[in-house]
């Protein structure tokens, strides 16, 4: 097969775990993938496609992940330290039988990323960073439950936020929906990024190039990389079962970023202007998509 994985006989059990014979389950599907690959399309390996059992597992993980963000939403405000947010995330996650995916991932020291104002991503919580009136902040939660990964983030406006910051937060959230609207089964990943980028530019903003979404489900970060500065009709085919995040990072100013923080993680806008990000996790379905975490 196109992906180098095992070729099944017609009467073998299907690779998806359904228990059905291959000829009655995924044989025609795989033959379509093979033809598309031979035509030069970027087709995901079957190992990236989530089975119904996988999707149910991811949903159980996402139930915790969404619950964490709801918990934070009820408590966040001026005077709260980012370290306190980290404790909320850790305690809630563990109490619900799960593990915070960021904790100790490639050396990351905390359970959540908290990125305020000009911080693009990977803001490390600390006792000394206290949220104040007028801040905008992204809370990026990722959860492992029973071996399945979920991931989503939300923006929060703290107190009386200046209109220009509030607009950035709103437009970035709208851009995610624009990306979802561009997601069509058997379409192209590049359609999503192109739609997001066009919407951000239309409102006078720029989109970060170096970071984007990613495949997820059985691992924290899987293929494909989901860029938001792409052209329509390019990239990986959106094959049913493909699971990934849509998470554009939208800057008020220029798109350039600064990765020089000594902690090795925190990324900021180069010009020091505010940035915003919302993240959702989706799986491509036969008739559209299913939102898994938000």
What does this structure look like?
The protein is α+β, with helices and mostly antiparallel strands. The protein is built from five helices and 15 strands. A hairpin with a 2-residue loop joins strand 4 and strand 5 (148-157). It starts with 26 loop residues before the first helix and ends with a strand. The mean pLDDT is 97.
What are the segments in which pLDDT stays under 50 over at least 5 consecutive residues? none
User: What do the pLDDT scores average to?
Assistant: 97
DSSP strand tally: 15
Which shape, going by the Cα principal axes? globular
SS class = alpha+beta
Computed over alpha carbons, the radius of gyration is: 20 Å
What is the helix content? 25-40%
In percent, how much strand structure appears in the residues?
15-25%
| End-to-end CA span | 35 Å
Number of helices: 5
The major beta sheet can be summarized as: 4 strands, antiparallel
The string of secondary-structure elements, in order, is: HHHEEEEEHHEEEEEEEEEE
Gist?
The chain is built from five helices and 15 strands. The strands form five sheets. Strands 1, 2, 4 and 5 form a four-stranded antiparallel beta sheet that branches.
Question: What's the structural blueprint in terms of helices and strands?
Answer:
Elements: H1 27-38, H2 52-73, H3 82-95, E1 99-100, E2 113-116, E3 119-121, E4 136-145, E5 148-157, H4 163-181, H5 189-202, E6 206-207, E7 213-215, E8 222-226, E9 243-246, E10 249-251, E11 257-258, E12 267-269, E13 275-277, E14 280-285, E15 288-293
Helix pairs in contact: 2-3, 4-5
């Amino acid at each position: 097969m196109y992906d180098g994985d095992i070729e099944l006989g017609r009467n073998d059990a299907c690779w998806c775990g359904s228990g059905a014979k291959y000829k009655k389950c995924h044989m025609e599907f795989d033959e379509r993938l093979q033809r598309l690959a031979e035509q030069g399309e970027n087709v995901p390996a079957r190992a990236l496609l989530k089975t119904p059992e996988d999707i149910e597992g991811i949903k159980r993980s996402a139930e915790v992940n969404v619950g964490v963000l709801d918990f934070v939403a009820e408590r966040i405000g001026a005077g709260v330290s980012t370290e306190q947010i980290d404790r909320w995330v850790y305690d809630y996650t563990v109490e619900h039988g799960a593990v915070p995916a960021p904790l100790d991932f490639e050396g990351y020291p905390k359970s959540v990323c908290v990125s305020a104002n000009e911080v693009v991503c990977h803001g490390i919580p600390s006792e000394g960073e206290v949220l104040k009136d007028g801040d905008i902040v992204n809370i990026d939660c990722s959860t492992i439950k029973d071996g399945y990964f979920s991931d989503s983030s939300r923006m929060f406006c703290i107190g009386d936020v200046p209109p220009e910051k509030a607009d950035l937060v709103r437009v970035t959230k709208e851009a995610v929906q624009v990306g979802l609207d561009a997601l069509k089964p058997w379409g192209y990943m590049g359609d999503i990024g192109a739609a997001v980028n066009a919407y951000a530019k239309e409102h006078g903003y720029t989109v970060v190039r170096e970071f984007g979404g990613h495949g997820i489900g059985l691992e924290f970060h899987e293929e494909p990389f989901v860029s938001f500065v792409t052209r329509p009709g390019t990239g990986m085919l959106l094959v049913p079962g493909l699971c990934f995040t849509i998470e554009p990072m939208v800057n008020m100013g220029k798109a350039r970023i600064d990765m020089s923080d000594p902690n090795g993680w925190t990324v900021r806008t180069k010009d020091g202007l505010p940035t915003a990000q919302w993240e959702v996790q989706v799986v491509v379905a036969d008739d559209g998509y299913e939102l898994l975490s938000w």
